[in-house]
Write a structure and sequence with these properties.
single chain, elongated
Length: 300
């Protein structure tokens, strides 16, 4: 995906957007499990076969059994692998496919219900790390959703794990959470409030689980409209009557599908800057990831 010649045929599947755009904002830690297994490139391709409840990796032509080596290699890689903020796997790969990987049965049937062996081991070790496949990056809403979670993970990793820091973190993510799942957003507010005076470690551990569950939910135009309405609620008493009516008309236009999300979002942000509402300015709904990535324009 990053242009390194590690495929079984000795080539690569370079992904322009990952290299040229996202690569400017992140530090990559590339890994190819099959190269780490010592198979080299070019090499015999591998496949997964099913023996009842057991899945094995074998050489595609020779039938060489590679399961033990694949699992041992995955354990070695992950034993020294620093926990990342996100992971992008290779679609359909018997090693790195995240879902719907081809697996052959003895009766000749083929299912697509397996995970790549390395991908499965990775997700077991790092269950809260946002993961996706490079194929999903072609869907622009999927791309935006993954990058949103990626930078949320980075902020979570970097912030102090104190109750005060947690409450500020929640405040900054409040509107984003509402756009993903309103119920979980309310649950997270209660956790962050810590009314039962639990230890910071315990509270932060619970918050982390629920937060990344909430962030895994996909937004919809309806949920985004709900957030835009909430944002407008903070502004309406500070705006001139004419501008307030114009913004209301624009919001209704977005709800009816007549105005894009990006245009409505830009109008609200501009109004927010003019009336100076610090609570809104520090909210990450405006800039959850580097603006240079330009992902907001793809949202409906």
């Amino acid at each position: 995906m990053l242009g390194q010649n590690v495929r079984f045929d000795g080539g690569n599947k370079a992904h322009d957007w990952l290299i040229k755009e996202l690569g400017k904002q992140v530090e990559w830690h590339p890994v190819c499990p099959e190269m780490e297994m010592g198979l080299g490139a070019p090499r015999e391709s591998v496949r997964l076969i099913s023996h009842g409840t057991t899945i094995e990796m074998v050489g595609n032509k020779t039938g060489e059994k590679l399961t033990a080596l694949a699992k041992k290699t995955a354990a070695r890689i992950l034993g020294k692998f620093p926990e990342p903020d996100g992971m992008i796997f290779k679609k359909n790969s018997p090693s790195c496919g995240m879902e719907r990987v081809r697996v052959e049965k003895k009766n000749g049937y083929v299912d697509r219900n397996a995970l790549g062996m390395f991908a499965e081991a990775f997700m077991e070790k790092f269950p809260l790390v946002p993961c996706t496949e490079e194929g999903r990056m072609e869907n622009l809403e999927e791309r935006e959703h993954f990058v949103m979670r990626l930078f949320a993970r980075k902020r979570w990793r970097e912030q102090p794990k104190t109750i005060a820091s947690l409450q500020l973190f929640h405040q900054r993510y409040k509107f984003i959470l509402m756009a993903h799942n309103q119920k979980l957003a309310k649950d997270l507010g209660k956790i962050a409030a810590n009314s039962d005076r639990r230890s910071p470690k315990e509270v932060c551990a619970e918050y982390e689980l629920v937060f990344f569950d909430a962030m895994s939910k996909r937004t919809t135009p309806g949920r985004r409209f709900n957030v835009l309405q909430h944002l407008f609620g903070f502004l309406k008493d500070r705006l001139p009557e004419k501008e307030k009516k114009s913004l209301l008309d624009d919001l209704e236009g977005y709800r009816r599908g007549e105005i894009s999300f990006q245009a409505t979002f830009a109008l609200l942000r501009s109004a927010c800057k003019r009336v100076d509402v610090p609570y809104l300015e520090q909210n990450l709904f405006w800039d959850p990831y580097p603006r240079a990535l330009g992902l907001r324009r793809f949202l409906e």
